[in-house]
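Table S2 (text version). Query chain:
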Amino acid sequence: MSAQTDRFVHDRLPPKEQWPTLLYERPELQIPSSSNLVESLLDSAPGKGWGDRPLLRSARITLTYTDVRDRVDRICRVLVEDLGMQPGNRVLLRGGNSIGMALAWLAVVKAGGIAVATMPLLRARELGDIIDKAQPMLALCDARLLEELALARRDRPVLRAVVAFNAANEPGSLAVRAAQKEGGFSACPTAADDIAMLAFTSGTTGKPKAAVHTHRDVLAACETWPRHVLRATPDDIVVGTPPLAFTFGLGGLLVFPMWAGASVYFPEAPYTPETLMRTIQDVGATICYTAPTFYRQAAQFARELGVGKLRISVSAGEGLPDATRQLWKQASGIEMLDGIGATEMFHIFISSAGADVRRGAIGKAVPGYTAKVVDDEGNEVPRGTVGKLAVIGPTGCKYLDEPRQASYVKDGWNYPGDAFLQDQDGYYFYQARADDMIITAGYNVGGPEVEDALLKHPAVAECGVVGKPDEERGMIVKAYCVLKPGHEGDAAMIRTLQDHVKATIAPFKYPREITFVPALPRTETGKLQRFRLRELG
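Corresponding structure-token output:
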């Protein structure tokens, strides 16, 4: 029985015939029909012996599981008693990775609200689009990020209140209000299929969508990749760069550590490659999450400083070039744990770790999920053939009020939009985003394969490869390269890189045009925005 009296999101889910088929066959996926994910992951911690273990860490404070529960309960009382939040109300969260942001997210969900976390670099126009779509009644915002939200709030009366969550000495702030409350808040008795969060996609295509995830979705995600592949322990200390507003970050840097009884360290300022490696040393971090580009930039510091107690390096968010995997392995001694997931699926569904890693492959389907490579009609293609990835499991895509639902879910299967091939042993090899495959003179070329070849040249720091329309060949392979200091982006370098690619992969795949740029366009989560490269021509 749903506890969410505000039915705004429930009423704007796709029609049932467009829903994904959800599979809960494994014993660990038998989640009670009445479940609140924060109650399941946080409130139960003392009963597992974790009450006095650290959960949230920073340079200034360490909070145990019991401490976090007490602070979350006090915030819940502010939300319900002072701000009038009702179960099912949307609450916009605006902040970087911090203890305050984590506490706010947990409190909204525990009290039965729907968390709408947003990236800290979003501007007023982008925030306004999210407000228009999600219709939040309340926002909890980092005090340093109030200005853009105030601009977005103009002419949007639906957002009735904005409260700063980390202004400890400001009257009316969330911290001051919570300090005046009692603890002991009972979790809202949500149904497992009540909505916990709206996750806005990171916008690699320029048009973000809102993916809907229930309490069951998040709890089921904990029982798949974290249980079977990551295998974190209560002694692990987790660090990383992906924002909590991104499901890769929310899972890796909050939800999954709670499931394992581990702890998370949040920095005072956003990481650079150097400060990430120094933090790993200083705090004894054992698990790190970041994107391939960041690992590539951090490799030199791993080599210089060492990696301390680090034992697991998780890469996701975009394709991992083998050149980056090998560079990191040489610098750190650690085999990368690669994975592919989707905001629409909550987290990783193809991955392999340790001895199961196969060079060039992302991995196999995570237990609980089934994947296949299909043609345009949904028929499975022969092994070794490039096609579209289709996935089914205990999580799936349900967009909020979005016509693109029908193109993501077909016959119950989720189509994340990636081109893959699968080998005879069941390993999946990423080729490109399905709409990024370059068809040139009748040949299929995956941009990431060309990028990997370019990255193997010592002059190339970063690169992005797209197709460019061409009258003679249909499309040509076009590369945008960022060179390392000391290298000139001239005609001689273009020829050098073209010859290098021809000698590394099939010659027809070489970039017929190369443009040198100072930086590549990326989302806040680090994903390359190829649509912006295509716009450059």
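Notes on Table S2: The chain has a mean pLDDT of 93. Residues 65-82 form the longest helix (18 residues).
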